[in-house]
Design goal:
InterPro entries: AmpC-like, Beta-lactam-related, Beta-lactam/transpept-like
CATH class of the largest domain: Alpha Beta
Number of domains: 2
Largest sheet: 8 strands, antiparallel
Strand order of the largest sheet: 3-2-1-15-14-13-12-11
Subcellular location: Membrane
Keywords: Hydrolase, Membrane, Signal, Transmembrane, Transmembrane helix
Strand content: 15-25%
CATH architecture of the largest domain: 3-Layer(aba) Sandwich
GO molecular function, one term: hydrolase activity
Number of helices: 14
Protein name: Serine hydrolase
Low-confidence stretches: 15-25
Oligomer: single chain
Helix content: 40-55%
Amino acid sequence: MKLSVRLCMLMIAMILAVSGLTPKIANAESSEKIQKIEQFVEEQRSISKTPGISVVIVEKGKTVYQKGFGYADVKAKTPVTSNTLFEIGSTTKAFTGLAILQLEKEGLLKRSDDVRKYIPWLELKYNGEPQTITLNQLLHHTSGIASNSITKIPESNADNALELTVRTLLNQQLNRKPGSSCEYATINYDILGLVIESVTKQPYDVYMKKQILEPIGMKESFVGMHQVQSTEMASGYKIGFMQEQPYTPPIYRGNIPAGYLISNTNDIAKWMKLQLGNDSSNAIDKQLIQESHIPDQSVEPFDKDTYYASGWGVMKKSEKQYIFHAGENPTFTSYFIMQPDEQLGVAILSNMSTSFTTAIGQGVMDLWEGKNITNNHSDRNQKLDKFLTIMCIVVGCLCLFFILLSLGIIRKLVRKQRVRTPLNAKRILLLSIHTLIVAAILTLIIMFPEISGLPWAFIKAWGPTTIPVFIYSIIAVSIIYYLFGLLLVFTKKIKLN
């Protein structure tokens, strides 16, 4: 009897020991993951020169990790927190897509409808023929609208900016038959925003705030900068001369439905929980959320094993499904990625235009899932900035060189060591060649927007800050070089006896 009691007590003690150890093991694993994630984020933030990053991870309906890295404002040394607000870029599209599905459920529209039912004047053509474009095709980026239509979005803070943006399409041909293939064009979602206005008889920003954000508890989020009533807004930056540079881009109020919702990781955590089916408020029908994740597989994938849904990319990877989207504005980027089977979601918000934000989001997801990662990402803007920084130094040296040579000639003129001379055939030829070289350089700069299809205003807003400096440097050195040439052509050395 005593032996059996002892055995029972021993078994109970072992069970208690094991049960007490299990959470500690789990906690140890989580701590190790978090340590790796924080080291990874800090390393990538340093490499990319990103001023501030906000990270949140949700799992099974809980926020399991949330932290800010770096600064919301570099000059003021304001740290990033979970309250810091960021423009979320194209991750806004999922909000617009959900609103369209919600309006369909309410019987106010159908996704199979021709967009002209709601915007009668929006008649777009392919090969000169008017085309039928459905709301579904706008949702899935199969409308035939070209991706470079983003370059025509007007700078505007007017109340009718959304209509002004959509009207730019009237002067642009579709580049393929609607429904034939997927080509990502941000303006598709601006059209959907205008459809929302037409159907609801409300401004897009007012409708989205009241019918989408507030019901799901995203009370710290705003639809466009004009709505922001908070001191928590992060300053925006972009790369320039190999470090972060503060920059205030133009206002594109007509692009809000596609890219200018403003939020923080507190609210984005709620958004991801909603997407993963863990929203306790039941403010949005769960079936609508699931429908918004159904991709259009009637066309070829836009990336490897990746199709587009309603504001989400849907990808199969190692037998797992991932739902994701990146967002990029001139001075902010974001990345959301979710794994529905594990009810796991990761969101990254940053106050710099850089593709590192996407790489960080993918890396954090991999680390949380226990995978190994490689830190070999590079950003095209960072590469371009490095090249242009070197070129600015080279052009600056050339500029100084020609200034010194010109001053040397002027000095000799003052000292009567050089004198003016009439033009002869040889000097006219040299002047012509000299003029043609400088004219060619300046013409190339003027014609570059026509050649590339990228207006200077767009390049200035979206590219590194070194681009305009480099262009002005080229113009300056061309003028100084031309003046130096004129001094050489119109003067000559005095021959000493």
